[in-house]
Amino acid sequence: MNESNTTQRSTANEVLDALFHQIKVWRVELLLITPPIVLAVWLYSRAGLAVAVAALVALVALALGVANPRHVIFGVLHRSSVRRHLETAFASLPGILGERPPAIKSITRTNFGDRAELLLAKGTSIEDLAKMESVLASSLGVRQVRCRANESKRNVVTLSITRDDPFAEETPSPLLKVARTCFWDATDLGVNEEGEVTSVPLVGRHAMLGGESGSGKSVTLNQLVASAALDPETDLWLFDGKGVDLTIWRNCATAYVGGDLADAVANLERLVSLMEQHYEQLRERGLVKITRDAGLRLQVVVVDELTVFLAGPDKVNSKRCYELLRDLVARGRAAGFVVLTATQRPSTDTVPSSLRDLFGLRWALRCATRDSSDTILGAGWASEGYSASLINASARGVGFVLYDGVPEKLRSFSLSDEDLVLLAQRAERLRR
User: Fold this and answer.
1) Closest CA to 279 of 337, 325, 326
2) pLDDT-based confidence at 52, cuts 50/70/90?
3) Can you give the three-state secondary structure of the chain, one letter per residue?
4) How far apart are CA 166 and CA 410, in angstroms?
5) Using CB atoms within 10 A of its CB, is residue 7 exposed (0-12), middle (13-18) or buried (19+)?
6) How far is CA 431 from CA 58, 385, 427, in A?
7) Is the confidence at residue 62, as pLDDT, over 80?
8) Please, what are the domains in the chain?
9) C-beta of residue 233 within 8 angstroms of C-beta of residue 297
10) Distance between CA 228 and CA 238 in Å, rounded?
11) For 108-126, what is each residue's pLDDT tens digit?
């Protein structure tokens, strides 16, 4: 008899535990439906079934028919659903993360999924969570999960959940809607996986783009060139290795160089001399680097098909191009020089690491191999899941951008040939 009573009590406790667990899991939904049910029961006791049903229907119709309440209710239900699925996914993780799952601080809906702010439990780290990204994505049934550390608090993590393909459609360049730019401001690069525009200040850093033919490298580079060309207070120096992709900006440039290495050397020497003049003027003003109020014009140097100038058949001038360009990249940032380069694959054979390592922004569009991607972004990123070799061949303009922290996947803005003509004409009028 005692064993029977013990078994019954144990079963009852299990049922109660399961019930309390379900109440905890569905707590938001229960809080939403409890007031209408209580109201309906009260009306039923006072005025009958018909009045109670009519009032309940009217209340639901009002809540769902008016935009603001409907958005609030659907938003609460969506966040509750995401929280419930996340908690279940965390509990199923192996090892220490399953034993000490992160606490969910907040959930925000994005254009293509959700963004959750997590508080890591003691004894866990973002590295532990990053290793479980693919497992979490599988558990949640979504395309991708990415975690990003908080810069000031290492125990706070941003988890990006991507459901829809953010790069399925092209986004027209925002430059088409502006009369002019200011290159001192952050430059819009493209749209990230959350459907938000990624903007990065280019003044004070140099940029290197890489990717195989057909990856969208030319359009991506022209987007950056257009940002500089539409600022009439910025000087543009163009080194066009193929003699095709940058010709549209020729009338906006201080100097235009084709594939002639001797001409390239002459103009790079002019740039280095101008850099020395800038430094002399900065010293006279007591400044250590250029500022908006320094009275010096920004110099944007664009080198397309970098290997043409560094690994051409003319070994003497190629070596001189490398020496001058490296000097410009190494010392030019503080003097207001911004170097933008593009090449299919900046390998050590064609672009020495002593030059590649000086670029503060690296953009890897689709690459043929993991090694090619790592050559652009830096060794080791492919093994961490940031490999441009995994990008679909049809996804032109999609790539990984590394400028601070970890690489960010985004798609550059689209620019048709007609768009480029329109922007170039606008830039020419500004510069007259």
Assistant:
1) 337
2) low
3) CHHHHHHHHHHHHHHHHHHHHHHHHCHHHHHHHHHHHHHHHHHHHHHCHHHHHHHHHHHHHHHHHCHHHHHHHHHHHHHHHHHHHHHHHHHCCCHHHHHCCCEEEEEEECCCEEEEEEECCCCCCHHHHHCCHHHHHHHHCCCEEEEEECCCCCCEEEEEEECCCCCCCCCECHHHHCCCCCCCCCEEEEEECCCCEEEECCCCCCEEEECCCCCCHHHHHHHHHHHHHCCCCEEEEEEECCCCCCHHHHHHCCEEECCCHHHHHHHHHHHHHHHHHHHHHHHHHCCCCCCHHHCCCEEEEEEECHHHHHCCCCHHHHHHHHHHHHHHHHHCHHHCEEEEEEECCCCCCCCCHHHHCCCCEEEEECCCCHHHHHHHHCCCCHHHCCCHHHCCCCCCCEEEEECCCCCEEEEECECCHHHHHHHHHHHHHHHC
4) 9
5) exposed
6) 64, 44, 6
7) no
8) 174-431 (3.40.50.300)
9) yes
10) 12
11) 888 888 889 999 888 888 8
User: Beta strands 255-257 and 298-304: pairing type?
Assistant: unpaired
The tens digit of pLDDT for each residue in 218-251 reads: 999 999 999 999 999 999 999 999 888 899 999 9
Mean pLDDT value across residues 296-308: 95
Average of per-residue pLDDT values in the chain: 85
322 has pLDDT over 50: yes
Span 19-36, mean pLDDT?
55
CB 365 within 8 A of CB 215: yes
pLDDT digits (tens, 9 = 90+) for 138-184: 888 888 888 888 777 878 888 888 888 888 888 999 999 999 999 99
| 98 or 387: which leads in pLDDT | 387
Count of C-beta atoms within a 10 Å radius of residue 226: 27
Cβ neighbours of 141 (radius 10 Å)? 9
- Structure-token pair, residue 417: 């040939």
Residue entry with tokens 């066009």? 240
pLDDT tens-digit profile of 173-190? 999 999 999 999 999 999
**CA distances in angstroms from 122 to 38, 65, 155, listed in the order given:** 42, 45, 8
